[in-house]
């Protein structure tokens, strides 16, 4: 919905600025709700934050894309990777420090800190509003009518009520999310049907890519589900023997590696291009599944190295996240870039929103499947239990990832044919144009 509104009515820059303003309000109310232990207020604050993310998350990529001319699209892809790396620096800092901050300033302190940081974002957006508005879409270049503002407010209140209901009724809300995800994909299919011939095949390739992304980000979702459960139950509290880490912070290794490896990954791509090696983005996704398979194979192996204290070394999780982060860096920014390049600019924000839908569906799927390794609190973690539950689960995930390597290679050939068909139509139409 955020991408749809940005494309059709309010503009990409406005969507980000309004969304970040509501983000700030949500964190402020969440801090107040935590201080007062007020559950309804806290749920409303979470609804505000969820709404703000939906409204704003799709548009920064659109603004970044519009900042590069058509002659510098390769630079745009590299810019995405740099942006992705910087985002992961913030993510690592937050995930690693969060449990320590909880001990020092409690939940409400974390939320008030987030409110302060979001206000700093808003100040930056106000200072650079002219430059950012200039790379927005055409709705950003003109004032909005009272009718559009009233419509936007009415839709926003409806969405807020919907998100509040979802968080208040998680079981039923899950099925609503499935329905909304399916509706978004069906709407995208109608856009394909109505699109000019040159875009039809490109947008069909996006549909295939979205399926690949759902499968890949299912593995990404394991970080906060099965891998997190495994780490909390069995991971030691030292990395490299001397760096303190809380098991709840284990997911911080992922953005840390993404930040460290962002620059080297750009160097590798540049080196390959100089050698004349330039695999397609879907092919890169296929190799990303190989690294994910290696990560979960390593995770399954770690179950055989439980010490006498009932813990395995945190170094295992550090290395698992290295392979998973390499996989994520291969595809993280590239999937975004592929979608942006394949769709008309008039629906670019909605297309990015559709990518967010695939991430959500992947996360839900990961959470549902990972319940297979959720253990009762009073169960004793014997070697037999660990082998039956964790080893088998992670081994199966590794085998499925290796199988997806071959499936994705096949689908990449399909995507290549669709794009080639689109380019052929574009050449044909160009030849028919009068000189």
TrEMBL record:
Keywords, ordered alphabetically: Membrane, Peptide transport, Protein transport, Transmembrane, Transmembrane helix, Transport
Highest taxon listed in the record's lineage: Bacteria
Compartmental location: Membrane
Lipid bilayer topology: Multi-pass membrane protein
Transmembrane segments: 12-37, 43-65, 111-128, 148-169, 175-194, 201-220, 252-272, 284-306, 318-340, 352-370, 390-411
Primary subcellular site in the record, as a coarse category: membrane
Protein name from the UniProt record: Oligopeptide:H+ symporter
Taxonomic source organism: Endozoicomonas gorgoniicola
Lineage: Bacteria, Pseudomonadati, Pseudomonadota, Gammaproteobacteria, Oceanospirillales
């Amino acid at each position: 919905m955020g991408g749809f509104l940005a494309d059709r009515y309010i503009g990409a820059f406005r969507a980000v600025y309004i969304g970040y303003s509501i983000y700030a309000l949500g964190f402020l109310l969440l801090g107040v709700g935590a201080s007062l232990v007020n559950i309804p207020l806290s749920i409303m604050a979470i609804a505000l934050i969820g709404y703000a993310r939906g409204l704003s998350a799709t548009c920064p990529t659109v603004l970044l894309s519009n900042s590069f001319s058509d002659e510098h699209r390769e630079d745009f892809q590299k810019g995405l990777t740099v942006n992705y790396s910087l985002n992961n620096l913030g993510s690592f800092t937050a995930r690693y420090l969060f449990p320590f901050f909880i001990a020092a300033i409690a939940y409400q302190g974390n939320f008030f800190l987030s409110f302060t940081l979001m206000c700093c974002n808003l100040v930056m957006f106000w200072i650079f509003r002219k430059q950012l508005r200039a790379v927005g879409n055409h709705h950003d270049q003109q004032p909005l009518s009272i009718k559009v503002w009233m419509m936007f407010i009415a839709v926003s209140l409806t969405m807020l009520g919907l998100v509040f209901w979802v968080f208040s009724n998680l079981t039923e809300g899950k099925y609503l999310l499935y329905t909304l995800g399916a509706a978004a994909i069906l709407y995208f299919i109608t856009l394909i049907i109505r699109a000019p011939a040159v875009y039809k095949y490109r947008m069909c390739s996006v549909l295939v890519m979205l399926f690949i992304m759902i499968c890949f980000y299912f593995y990404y979702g394991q970080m906060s589900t099965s891998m997190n459960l495994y780490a909390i139950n069995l991971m030691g509290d030292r990395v490299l023997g001397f760096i303190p880490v809380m098991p709840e912070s284990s997911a911080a290794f992922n953005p840390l590696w993404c930040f460290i490896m962002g620059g080297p990954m750009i160097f590798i791509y540049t080196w390959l291009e100089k050698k004349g090696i330039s695999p397609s983005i879907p092919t890169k996704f296929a190799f990303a599944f190989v690294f994910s398979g290696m990560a979960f194979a390593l995770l399954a192996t770690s179950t055989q190295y439980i010490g006498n204290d009932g813990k395995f070394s945190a170094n295992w999780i550090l290395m698992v996240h290295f392979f998973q982060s390499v996989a994520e860096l291969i595809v993280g920014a590239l999937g975004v870039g592929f979608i942006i390049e394949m769709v008309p600019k008039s629906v670019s924000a909605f297309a990015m929103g559709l990518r967010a839908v695939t991430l959500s569906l992947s996360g839900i799927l990961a959470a549902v499947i990972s319940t297979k390794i959720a253990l009762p609190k009073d169960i004793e973690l014997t070697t037999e239990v660990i082998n039956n539950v964790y080893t088998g689960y992670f081994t199966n995930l590794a085998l499925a990832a290796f199988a997806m390597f071959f499936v994705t290679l096949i689908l990449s050939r399909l995507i290549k044919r669709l794009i080639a068909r689109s380019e052929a139509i574009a050449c044909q139409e160009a030849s028919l144009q009068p000189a």
